[in-house]
Amino acid sequence: MKKLWLKIGLSFVILFFVTMGVVGVLSGELMKSTYLTMKENQLEDDAKILLRTTDIEHLDLDTQADQIQARLAPLTEDIDIRITVIDQDGKVVADTKEDPATMENHLNRPEVQDVLVKGESVGSAIRKSESVGYSMLYVAVPIKQDGQTDGVLRVSISLESVEKAVQQLWWSLFAIFGVALLIIAAISIIIARRITRPVKEIIDVSTDLANYKYDSRIHGKSSGELADLSISVNKLAESLETQMHEIRENSQRLSVIVQNLVSGVMLINNEKEVVMTNKTMYQLLGETDITGKPFYESLKSFALNQLVEKTLESKRMQQEEVTLYFPREMILDASVSPILNEEGEISGIILLLHDITQIRHLEQVRSEFVANVSHELKTPVTALKGFAETLLDGAMYDEALLKQFLHIIKDESDRLHRLILDILALSRIEQKSLPTMKEEIEVGQVIEQSVKTVRALAAEKGIQVEVMGADHPVVIETDRDRLQQILINLLSNAIAYTPKQGRVQVIAEETDDQVCLTVQDNGIGIPAKDLDRIFERFYRVDKARSRHSGGTGLGLSIVKHLVESAGGSISVESVEEQGSSFHVYLPKK
Ligand code: ADP
Known about the structure:
The protein is of the alpha+beta class. The chain folds into five domains: 1-54 and 159-252, no CATH class; 83-158, PAS domain (Beta-Lactamase, 2-Layer Sandwich), CATH 3.30.450.20; 261-355, Beta-Lactamase (2-Layer Sandwich); 360-429, Helix Hairpins (Orthogonal Bundle); 436-587, Heat Shock Protein 90, CATH 3.30.565. It is 50% helix and 21% strand. It has helices spanning 4-54, 65-72, 110-116, 160-210, 224-259, 279-285, 295-298, 302-314, 357-392, 399-430, 443-460, 480-496, 543-548, 555-565, and strands spanning 81-87, 92-95, 123-128, 135-145, 148-158, 264-269, 274-277, 318-324, 330-340, 346-355, 438-442, 464-468, 475-479, 503-510, 514-521, 569-575, 579-587. The strands form four sheets. A five-stranded antiparallel β-sheet has the order 2-1-5-4-3, with helices on both faces. It has a five-stranded antiparallel β-sheet with strand order 7-6-10-9-8, sandwiched between helices. Strands 12-14-15-17-16 form a five-stranded mixed β-sheet, covered by helices on one side. Strand 4 and strand 5 (148-158) form a beta hairpin. Adenosine-5'-diphosphate binds next to helix 12 and helix 14.
């Protein structure tokens, strides 16, 4: 039986039933015995009155039996009472219901025994009369002659009416019980329900809390301990709701952080299955359907799998640089940490992958750059040292040699100076430490200014420099000095790599949002295989020629950096022996 109200109600009903049963039985028995005692006393009185009124005490029981019978007979004609006279030996002398001659000896009757044998003043008994067929109450008193008990006068009545009355009483009690039981049952249920309603509500709210419905509360009113319990449960629910809210917020925050980490994160459980990964991990592994699968199916790298296995075995963090070849070639910094529970057992593994390809590439570029710079510096310095030593060794006394060597020393130190200036310029642009001065400038003017700067250089080789498309003003917002530097570098190259009497053109074109400046020459051109690399630092197509023309190998890489820092782009077209065109695209704003 599950319902609490039913249990309480039923307990009430059973308690009532038992109590009423006991009370009923006891009171029934009490009433019955009281009634019988009353009847007994009454019969005793009746017997004593009879003795006096019939004067039997003065008759001889043995000889005057007929008289006694004659005196007694009329007395019971209308009343339901039986009178019997019994002598000392138990022989029936007279009887108002039967013929005494036919009746057996009554000495063994208990009421007769009480008087005749025990000598008591009254004897009584209840038993079923064989002659009449139902229970009778017998009361006997002694008949005394001269103070001696001579016989017994016995008065008896049928107990049929008493038994009927008791039976009646039982039926009435049952009926009252039945009605009372119904009323008690109804009242018990109402009371039990009232008691259990708050309990039910508390159970419902607790179930809701267990089912993650943290906003559930007890609203019903109750009193006493149940009210205290309701308040406690409501407080518990409130604190649970706040805590769950905080936990949810924290986990959301954590998930956002993990999802947006630049490192790839993978959580593996102790069954070696992937439990969680972030976006970066998907990108690094080139797979999205990872969660729920064994880690070795997603980590398609022997080194990574080994690293995880090593962590599982050693229960210690492992870190290594690993190269992946799929989905693309990458250098990864992989660290695998175990998650240990309180017993020190592994409950999971966290794998972190950080793509360091770029860093390693930059490191390589940097070390190559240092090597290149040292090499580039070494050439002029060796020349300077060599010529200075030759002069000191005696060549300085030959005036022609002295002059020639000093010229070489000056040219080499100029080159050294230019080289240092270019390296400094490049490193400043790369570090973005050069301030940008954005202003509205007229492109035609800047082209004019740049051409002016290189005109002497061009004139030396008889090269014509033409400006085209700058006849109508084109205004852009950029850094004037940087744009000028770009044009000077491109023009210097065009002049340097174009034979004498050649032609160099600067063409300005514009679209809605950008301008295109083209520096074109009809010089030696650039082989197709070198086109991709000419913007690299110190890259030269022909080292001897470049050095001869005073180049440092840094000009184009400075141009590329300047163009990109201005938000533009650069491209080149070239055919060997026909010429080259460099296109610089710059945004107008
Ligand atoms: P450099 O100081 O050697 O000129 P740059 O970075 O300016 O260095 O140019 C890189 C290389 O690109 C040059 O060495 C040269 O071989 C080639 N180059 C640049 N501009 C031209 C051009 N206009 N015509 C032919 N080759 C060129």
